[in-house]
Design a protein that fits this description.
single chain, about 160 residues, mainly alpha, Arc Repressor Mutant, subunit A, 2 domains, 3-stranded antiparallel β-sheet, 7 helices, about 5% strand
Length: about 160
């Protein structure tokens, strides 16, 4: 989920914050308030907008569900232009590195988790000498320090964006 505030969402779509408020009034969902800002899931908003534009196009040309299969040239052109605009927005989001290939992302996360797993598996060999002949307080301190380092490696994970 990509949480964004109203200004960030407006910037992603290339519209004003007023337009975002109008879309919310028209049915686009938000995630509620965080502090003084309303936050949104940008992916859900993108999907809502696609559906919203499709519905608007159908209404504009008087197409009901039964007629939707037989589209006229004007509607086809409008849908094509809407699709091209949405694709352009997606390309912009890719350029700004705001979207990522899910397979690439999953590989990166798997690599990060594997590094943590390896560190945890090697913990007994790595720490056994340090723990020998230590009192309980020192053993706890050493184990806590090692756990903190391991978890820091996971929390410092940063997705490496790969261009297709």
């Amino acid at each position: 989920m990509n949480k964004v505030n109203q200004a960030e969402l407006a910037n992603l779509f290339g519209v004003t914050p007023k337009t975002i408020r109008e879309w919310r009034d028209a049915g686009m969902s938000d995630l509620g308030k965080e502090g003084r800002s309303v936050v949104y899931d940008s992916r859900a908003c993108f999907n809502w907008r696609v559906e919203f534009e499709a519905d608007r196009t159908k209404e504009r040309f008087g197409v009901n569900q039964q007629e939707a299969g037989s589209m006229n040239m004007i509607e086809a052109k409008t849908r094509k232009e809407s699709a091209q605009a949405l694709l352009a927005e997606l390309e912009l989001a890719k350029t700004l590195e705001q979207v990522a290939n899910i397979d690439d992302l999953m590989r990166n996360v798997a690599d990060a988790l594997q590094a943590v797993r390896a560190k945890l598996i090697g913990q007994s060999n790595r720490l056994s000498g340090s723990l020998a002949h230590q009192d309980q307080e020192e053993v706890c301190r050493i184990l806590d320090e090692d756990a903190d380092e391991t978890l820091k490696a996971l929390s410092d994970y940063s997705h490496k964006y790969v261009r297709e």
